[in-house]
């Protein structure tokens, strides 16, 4: 462990060196290079046990869940574990006031009670291949986008041919490398069980991203397949999947220093961003995005507090908005504390210096200046885009229905010609049913009022709006302007009321466009969305293209000029491994975090009347009786622990494995002080947060009485 000062100092002295012993999200097919280091830290496995294309290996038990999270197979009958927050929208979709699975939990007593989830998938990686050479073949080089794309297409087609697999080729390190992923996508994933929110979401947003933690963040699903054990769309005839590999459960007593490894699908890291960009993130972009969400959360939280129905309707949306919001606050603070800008500038100085030492490295010498200049000059393109994303995609929800209507209007003639119009309209009505099930127009109106003001300010659109106003424009005038729009949109528009919306669709004809053009909900959206889509989004794309072509050169230089460093490509939702150990931290002066929490600690947080911390009487009773079954250790029941594994969003639900590859727990978070690790990893303070598998099994078995599920698993004592 390096205290921060030493870390910065040695960075300063040595430029880049392998200080970040625990940093990195490694590609499983390249693991051989790290095998000896992993073994030196206690791992008893070989690289081949973890990833193999010749035999079943741990990788076959790891799935990407629903496109965003990770899940793992824990039985020979396709039983799948992931986080509670990863299964949250499924749990919510099966919930109603009568069957409130959020509040009470759910446990299927047999396979008949396992519930289908239309659209939910689970994906297994069949194999990964380095196809860099093949992608560059016959092209004008790494910058030849068209040439590379053509190669990609050909390869994907060729590899797919005759198999039931999906194939994807992705750029790594800004196009310095290409890897091909062959995937098996399971289409019938059923909901098996969940603990109540008082366990699965214990601590709520108050404890989210925070240590100490006591969240039982897990839910249970099962993969179903056709009779041939291959993926098939949902059917009553489908049977539980018999996997190539499932994980065994580790009951071994845990202690600080134990080897840990996380295997999953991390979403996005940006370790290479340059100093000016980091400054932009810290000083401008994040604060504005945080402020936009402050405005919507204020309205949603108030709505959820005052009505049970609103609480259920908005629980998943609120969790998703609040999650990134809170992470960003932590990131900004962490990057400031770490002096991120200065750390980056020092790295950059070392890079420049190195580039001067050899003639053939000259091409790297000015790439950083060019990058930093570009960002200084054009960062507003990214800012405007980010604000548009916040407003149009995370803001007033009725916008979503307008976008759907646009689609109908664009394709109206085509649908008419093909005789599909009726069908399309029926489909729109069905999805509107789902939309309005979780919609409250008063809440949406509040969001609209709050955010519209802010969006116009941030993106400097005041001038455009007020240019026809004769008298001088004040903030109060602007507010009443937005208020009057809101009254009309939420009082009259077809997009803010289910009956109005359905009536409109029922009578849809050529004349409907005329009606739409008189609907303020419609015209307002289009008036401001069009410039966002045409100008901001384009501007952002062009900016990104310029940045990433320079980043390609910059990162190439890191590999070339610093060959002895540990290099790893940024996370990009592909399968990765990261390793470290079970370990606490001391991120704040005068304060240390121990490495695990217990059931007693959870009981101590109990607060009647506070929905984040209210425990069920059964939980309190079991804790008082110390009914730990076989799941305790040293007279305690571990709930969560932390590790020094480099993880990020998407690693949620990832298995945390011990030295033998057995399941110790489910990754679900990072501590507040580590959220900046997407940009800068600090081994002394960055910790991932894990729910202990023994607690997970305790909840299933002893708390909920779903012991039939535990019996399916392979327990290693
Ligand atoms: N922070 C975790 C993650 O990024 C957990 C989020 C779910 N929990 C919550 N209280 N919103 O996804
Ligand atoms: N909870 C996050 C997820 O959904 C993982 C936490 C993190 O960002 O490290 O993937």
Q: Regarding CATH, which class of the largest domain? A: Mainly Beta
Oligomer: single chain
Taking the alpha carbons of the first and last residues, their distance comes to 31 Å
What's the count of strands? 21
Q: CATH superfamily of the largest domain, please?
A: Trypsin-like serine proteases
CATH architecture of the largest domain: Beta Barrel
Q: β content, as a range?
A: 5-15%
**Associated small molecules:** arginine, glutamic acid
CATH topology value of the largest domain: Thrombin, subunit H
Q: In angstroms, what is the radius of gyration?
A: 26 Å
Helix count, DSSP H or I runs of 4 or more residues: 26
Shape: globular
| Sheet/helix structural class | alpha+beta
The proportion of residues forming helix, as a percent range, comes to: 40-55%
Counted up, domains total 3
Summarize the structure.
The protein is α+β, with helices and mostly antiparallel strands. Residues 1-21 have low confidence and may be disordered.
Explain this structure.
By secondary structure, this protein is α+β, with helices and mostly antiparallel strands. It folds into three domains: 68-118 and 187-268 and 570-717, Thrombin, subunit H; 122-184, no CATH class; 275-549, no CATH class. It is built from 26 helices and 21 strands. The strands form four sheets. Strands 1, 2, 3, 4, 5, 6, 7, 8, 9 and 10 form a ten-stranded antiparallel beta sheet that branches. Strand 18 (655-657) and strand 19 form a beta hairpin. The chain is globular. The model is unreliable at 1-21 (pLDDT under 50). Bound molecules: arginine (ARG) and glutamic acid. Glutamic acid binds next to strand 19.
